[in-house]
């Protein structure tokens, strides 16, 4: 199941139907994609659209899951009556949480620290300045020997101090960026832009986690809290710096006023979806087959 394709319905007014045995997405008589049901693992509905009962029937036969999004969050999922694959994965996920929680937490933060280092190092080389990227490199090595989730989180917190200190040096002073602030606390335009970017990233990661059959609420790094998609937040850690921060730093340095323009931010937050979905598959495979998990490493 995990080697099959995940397909998206992104266009308003799209119609997903069956044509000559193929599941087909059509928009105003234009075929957007057409695939054999045997090739599909999930159909992700991102826009107002229609789907035929024949597609639901084929989805049941071939074990295809259908997920509906509204805005940034999934709102419903049609699970085949022959539901088995995801249930097995969920059981393995619970077992992994009990026996390998620190292993996964360590890899998420190892990837995050590495990718933060790559971002700062890029600017150090480009402008011949010191942003203390070596501190992140050191923490990246140290986190690999941590034996507790609390220890891993401490390394992450230490890394955040060095990382955002380095980013602050890169952001033009007129934007008033003094440090990282979360949604609700953010007043300066760069923090607001970061929060918009992370919201968009969360949508992509959430879709990937659900599409491969993982339970989004059972995380390894972030603790369980009712309604919080802890696993989505876990997997996001690897992508924040390369997919969001680096793009916004580039915009801020090139044309600071553009950081205040929501249109510019939305236009630039185009993620490498394939990388995100591939990483979700890696995570599912690592849990399902008791394999080592390797985080996304930016270059």
Automatic annotation (TrEMBL):
Its cofactor is Mg(2+); Mn(2+). InterPro entries: Cas1, CRISPR-assoc_Cas1, CRISPR-assoc_Cas1_C, CRISPR-assoc_Cas1_N. Mn(2+) binds at residues 156, 222, 237. Signal peptide: none annotated. It is an enzyme of class 3 (hydrolase). The keyword RNA-binding does not apply. Its EC number is 3.1.-.-. The keyword Cell membrane does not apply. Keywords: Antiviral defense, DNA-binding, Endonuclease, Hydrolase, Magnesium, Manganese, Metal-binding, Nuclease. Pfam families: Cas_Cas1. GO terms for biological process: defense response to virus; maintenance of CRISPR repeat elements. It comes from the Archaea. One of its GO terms (molecular function) is endonuclease activity. Belongs to the CRISPR-associated endonuclease Cas1 family. HAMAP family: Cas1 (MF_01470). Homodimer, forms a heterotetramer with a Cas2 homodimer. PANTHER family: CRISPR-ASSOCIATED ENDONUCLEASE CAS1 1. CRISPR (clustered regularly interspaced short palindromic repeat), is an adaptive immune system that provides protection against mobile genetic elements (viruses, transposable elements and conjugative plasmids). CRISPR clusters contain spacers, sequences complementary to antecedent mobile elements, and target invading nucleic acids. CRISPR clusters are transcribed and processed into CRISPR RNA (crRNA). Acts as a dsDNA endonuclease. Involved in the integration of spacer DNA into the CRISPR cassette. This is CRISPR-associated endonuclease Cas1. It comes from Saccharolobus caldissimus.
């Amino acid at each position: 199941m995990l080697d099959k394709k995940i397909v998206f319905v992104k266009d308003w007014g799209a119609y997903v139907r069956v044509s000559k045995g193929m599941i087909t997405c059509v928009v105003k008589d234009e075929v957007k994609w057409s695939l054999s049901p045997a090739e599909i693992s999930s159909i992700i509905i991102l826009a107002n659209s229609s789907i035929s009962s024949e597609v639901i029937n084929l989805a049941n036969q071939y074990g295809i899951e259908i997920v509906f999004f509204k805005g940034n969050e999934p709102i419903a999922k049609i699970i085949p009556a022959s539901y088995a694959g995801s249930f097995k994965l969920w059981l393995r996920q619970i077992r992994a949480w009990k026996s390998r929680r620190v292993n996964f937490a360590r890899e998420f933060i190892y990837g995050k620290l590495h990718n933060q280092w790559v971002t700062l190092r890029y600017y150090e080389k480009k402008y011949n300045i010191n942003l203390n990227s070596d501190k992140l490199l050191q923490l990246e090595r140290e986190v690999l020997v941590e034996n507790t989730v609390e220890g891993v989180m401490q390394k992450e917190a230490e890394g955040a101090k060095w990382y955002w200190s380095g980013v602050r040096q890169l952001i033009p002073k007129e934007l008033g960026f003094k440090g990282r602030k979360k949604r609700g606390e953010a007043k300066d335009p760069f923090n607001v832009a970061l929060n918009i970017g992370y919201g968009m990233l969360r949508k992509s990661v959430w879709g990937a986690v659900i599409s491969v059959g993982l339970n989004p609420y059972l995380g390894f790094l972030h603790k369980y809290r009712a309604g919080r998609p802890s696993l989505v937040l876990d997997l996001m850690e690897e992508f924040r710096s390369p997919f969001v921060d680096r793009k916004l730093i580039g915009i801020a340095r090139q044309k600071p006023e553009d950081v205040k323009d929501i249109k510019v931010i939305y236009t630039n937050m185009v993620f490498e979806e394939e990388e995100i979905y591939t990483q979700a598959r890696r995570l599912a495979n690592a849990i399902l087959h008791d394999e080592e998990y390797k985080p996304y490493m930016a270059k």
